[in-house]
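ARCHIVE CARD
CATEGORY: sequence design from structure
SOURCE FIELD: tokenized fold
FIELD CONTENT:
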């Protein structure tokens, strides 16, 4: 079997299914387990830290692990960095067959920190049977020193190991999600998958096949190529299933104009659009006055969280790393005016842009390269939590294909439906 620790809602599992394989996932979260069940994935609902590892001895081909990142993530308090020496100690002890987790856990500032040491407990139990054949692990970048410790131990057990930071956008994911990766194998030289995309497209040459330009949010969501709205307003239900954050009477109609990502508000007086007086529109200020009419045309960008250092990207680029923290949904589409607007001598203000519109679970899932119809379980908050913590299936597919001895076809990972 392929054993998937901290399996979540199925990022690794969906990638394996596309590649013609299956895993058995260990996962504790009720809603992630329900999502996995709806997706037809095999799951043991359990605490990975409490489950006996010896049960799997003699049956494991590959081991996958994406320990919870909340203790290490930049979106949280990052107490995992404070606990890092304790986690390193736990890994060293478990590799030597000593279980000191209970003692070390009492000293941790965040009890989740020690979960990053759990894969070593399973690896030690399996190594006695010469297993697994390969290992792939993924976490936030700050965990890279821990992966290097794992690598040093695995090499003494006969593995070839590679560790490093990969950017998901380099593999066709419409998100510049950087992750610390460990790849280990007993049967082949461990190395990262060859990137397929770059920030600027690279033509084919004598030195390689070339790389396509990073996939934009607009491409992934199917905006601009069809008549699909950009973006959409949910028909009720905010974080955790509550109301949408729009004042009474401000429900907006969003249309996909010729320029993707533009927004036209509809009012009782008709559609308001942007235009320049110089372009032939009559001036309300009198003949010969070349001031701009109030601009009502907006370009959409995605803000990846609600913190001061949030990443804001236009839809023609990949998203920043999607963060969903204590608030169920911190990612929002925000509008910025296209062009400039002059202010007249009376001090008339620039038009007020549309209010931010929270991203939907479907949109967030697509930006993680899950299918548009992926069966997310739970209310909005529970769905967003699963999506934000999942490994992008397309990235997972690139990491797994060599171990499964199959060729990955990125077209098999459908984005917009």
């Amino acid at each position: 079997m392929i054993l998937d620790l901290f399996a979540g809602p199925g990022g690794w599992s969906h990638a394996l299914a596309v590649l013609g394989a299956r895993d058995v996932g260990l996962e504790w979260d009720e809603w992630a387990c329900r999502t996995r069940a709806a997706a037809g994935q095999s799951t043991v609902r359990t605490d990975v830290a409490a489950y006996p590892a010896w049960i799997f001895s003699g049956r494991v081909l590959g081991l996958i692990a994406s320990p919870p990142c909340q203790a290490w993530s930049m979106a949280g308090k990052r107490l995992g960095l404070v606990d890092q020496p304790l986690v390193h100690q736990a890994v060293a002890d478990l590799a030597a067959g000593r279980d000191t987790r209970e003692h070390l856990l009492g000293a941790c500032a965040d009890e989740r920190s020690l979960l990053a040491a759990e894969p070593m407990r399973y690896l030690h139990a399996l190594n006695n049977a010469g297993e697994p054949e390969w290992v792939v692990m993924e976490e936030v970048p700050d965990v890279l020193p821990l992966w290097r410790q794992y690598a040093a131990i695995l090499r003494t057990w006969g593995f070839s190991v590679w560790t490093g930071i990969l950017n998901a956008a380099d593999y066709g994911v419409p998100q510049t999600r950087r992750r610390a990766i460990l790849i280990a194998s007993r049967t082949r030289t461990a190395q990262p998958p060859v990137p397929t995309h770059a920030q600027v497209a690279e033509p084919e040459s004598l030195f390689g096949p070339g790389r396509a330009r990073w996939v934009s949010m607009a491409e992934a969501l199917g905006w601009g190529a069809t008549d699909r709205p950009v973006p959409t307003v949910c028909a009720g239900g905010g974080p955790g299933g509550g109301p949408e954050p729009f004042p009474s009477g401000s429900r907006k109609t969003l249309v996909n104009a010729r320029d993707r990502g533009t927004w036209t508000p509809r009012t009782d007086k008709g559609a308001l659009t942007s235009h320049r007086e110089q372009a032939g529109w009559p001036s309300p200020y009198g003949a010969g006055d070349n001031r701009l009419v109030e601009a009502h045309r907006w370009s959409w960008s995605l803000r990846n969280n609600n913190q001061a250092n949030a990443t804001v990207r236009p839809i023609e680029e990949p998203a920043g790393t999607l963060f969903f923290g204590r608030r169920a949904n911190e990612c929002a589409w925000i509008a910025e005016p296209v062009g400039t607007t002059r202010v007249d001598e009376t001090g008339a203000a620039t038009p007020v842009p549309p209010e931010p519109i929270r991203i939907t679970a479907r949109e967030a899932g697509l930006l993680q390269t899950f299918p548009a119809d992926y069966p997310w379980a739970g209310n909005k908050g529970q769905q967003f939590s699963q999506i934000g913590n999942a490994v992008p299936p397309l990235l997972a597919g690139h990491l797994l294909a060599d171990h499964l001895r199959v060729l990955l076809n990125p077209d098999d990972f459908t984005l917009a439906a």
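CARD ANNOTATION: Confidence is low (pLDDT under 50) at residues 225-229, 232-285, 289-296. The domain at 2-213+390-412 is CATH 3.40.50.150 (Rossmann fold).
SHELF: design records, drawer C
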